């Protein structure tokens, strides 16, 4: 599969991977996150085990032709926050755009962030990923939007410094583990829904947790992802850049999307409901207030 060529791009995945076909399965990811969600007071912060300590063991950074993947060692897990069990962390990877386009997979109120990081976790009762893909809640993915600021993110730097060593498909390198990538605060603000893998086989087995508060990267760090990576192997005649590696947005259909107890962004910003009981002039003031606030 691929992202940027007509014959194998995300719209064609269903030809080769039946479960990627949008008409056969109604649990596809990514989706747009908008005001059409309800708050679930029982969704508190997830419990992240081993994320704040320096892990030992073999961590591998790899270009698999579709993304840059950081395979992690054992010792990290995710639970709580409404997850049905303990999930072991297996890898993290990124989705990005190009030098002129944003490339997050999920969108927030139709806005696409520059990048998105996925931390993939597998339910601990399963011996391997193929077993987890048979369980409707076999995987839990934590999604973090990445926004661009002026300063380098030193923690992300542990990965971006090594990008040139995994420039081509199949290239690997060891990596120094760092979990300080995650935000220190606001980890209880997130959105939750049931969806799928965003890459083939698109299995509808993912409990998604998308954090409201983005992590940060500098423009030059983003540029390294967008312009230094290749989806082809070294020496291939037809060298192809690895960029715009995000799947298109899918309808939520009848699925529920929940805001966690502390989520602020979308529900906090929602317009007040129209009410005929409200005198017109009050409404105009409210709208004007909104405009001023917006400036
Ligand atoms: Zn992903």
Characterize the structure shown:
By secondary structure, this protein is an alpha+beta fold. It has a single domain, classed as Alpha carbonic anhydrase (Carbonic Anhydrase II), CATH 3.10.200. Helices cover 15% and strands 26% of the residues. The chain contains 6 helices and 15 strands. Strands 2, 3, 4, 5, 6, 7, 10, 11, 12, 13, 14 and 15 form a 12-stranded mixed β-sheet that branches. The chain has a 3-stranded mixed β-sheet with strand order 1-8-9, with no helix packed on it. It starts with 12 loop residues before the first helix and ends with a helix. The relative contact order is 0.22. Zinc ion binds next to strand 7.
Q: From the helix content, strand content and strand pairing, which structural class follows?
A: alpha+beta
- Weakly predicted, low-confidence segments: 270-295
Distance between the termini: 44 Å
Total strands: the figure is 15
Task: Please state the overall shape, judged from the principal axes of the Cα atoms.
Answer: globular
How much is the average pLDDT? 87
Q: What portion of the residues fall into strands of 2 or more residues?
A: 25-35%
Query: How many H/I helical runs?
Result: 6
CATH architecture: Roll
**CATH class designation:** Alpha Beta
Radius of gyration: 20 Å
Which sequence of SSEs, written as H and E, runs from N to C? HEEEEEEEEEEHEHEEEHEHH
- Main sheet properties: 12 strands, mixed
CATH superfamily assignment? Answer: Alpha carbonic anhydrase
Helix content: 10-25%
Overall number of domains: 1
Bound molecules: zinc ion
CATH topology category name: Carbonic Anhydrase II
